[in-house]
């Protein structure tokens, strides 16, 4: 499944693509169907078609890593080579990721969702969003009174 999102990556119009075969085990997962092998393969041709069909996006986000680390790195490389003006982002439910993911993607989000800590817009969140290895999570905390609750 794909969607255009405006709040996942700050200041970006982002094409978000859900990746199946999730290896995470977040309690209260909002997309439990992604634990299975669903959807179509994310081939280079499919990526190019998605980008062509979504004029105006300036970021490509993988929501999850699936179970094929090398395929994720190939996707990042294809995006860098064929679509160099797009920024690349990935959301991982793991608490830490390999350096090569930080090298392959402009934005890397780590941390499983834990309800009592809340999402990125809560100062109590356990999740972190990095832009070129710089923690930019506090950029989400200005969004209003939800942090005061």
Characterization of this structure:
- The protein is α/β, with parallel strands linked by helices.
- It has three helices and seven strands; from the N terminus they run ββαβαβαβββ.
- It has helices at 44-53, 69-82, 99-104; strands at residues 2-5, 14-18, 59-63, 87-91, 107-110, 128-131, 134-135.
- Strands 1-2-3-4-5-6-7 form a seven-stranded mixed beta sheet.
- Helix 1 links the parallel strand 2 and strand 3 (59-63).
- The longest helix has 14 residues, at 69-82.
Compact overview of the structure:
It contains 3 helices and 7 strands. It is of the alpha/beta class and 149 residues long.
Spatial order of strands in the largest sheet: 1-2-3-4-5-6-7
Number of DSSP E strands? 7
Gyration radius over CA:
15 Å
Task: Give the terminus-to-terminus CA distance.
Answer: 32 Å
- The helix/strand series, from N terminus to C terminus, equals EEHEHEHEEE
* β-strand amount: 15-25%
Overall, the morphology is: globular
The quaternary structure here is single chain
Mean pLDDT: 89
Largest sheet: 7 strands, mixed
Q: Helix content range of the residues, please?
A: 10-25%
Which stretches are poorly predicted, pLDDT < 50 over at least 5 residues? 145-149
Q: Which structural class fits the helix and strand makeup?
A: alpha/beta
Mind sketching the topology for me?
Layout: E1 2-5, E2 14-18, H1 44-53, E3 59-63, H2 69-82, E4 87-91, H3 99-104, E5 107-110, E6 128-131, E7 134-135
Parallel strand pairs: 2-3, 3-4, 4-5
Antiparallel strand pairs: 1-2, 5-6, 6-7
């Amino acid at each position: 499944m794909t969607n255009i999102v405006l709040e996942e990556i700050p200041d970006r119009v982002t094409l978000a693509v859900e990746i199946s075969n999730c290896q995470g085990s977040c309690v209260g997962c909002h997309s439990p169907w992604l634990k299975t092998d669903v959807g179509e393969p994310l081939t280079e041709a499919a990526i190019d078609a998605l980008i062509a069909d979504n004029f105006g996006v300036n970021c490509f986000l993988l929501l999850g890593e699936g179970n094929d680390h090398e395929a994720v790195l190939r996707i990042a490389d294809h995006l860098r080579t064929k679509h160099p003006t797009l920024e690349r982002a990935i959301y991982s439910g793991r608490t830490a990721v390999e350096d090569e993911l930080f090298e392959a993607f402009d934005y890397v989000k780590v941390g499983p969702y834990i309800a009592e800590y809340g999402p990125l817009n809560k100062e109590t969140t356990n999740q972190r969003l990095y832009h070129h290895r710089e923690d930019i999570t506090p950029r989400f905390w200005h969004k209003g009174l939800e942090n005061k609750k």
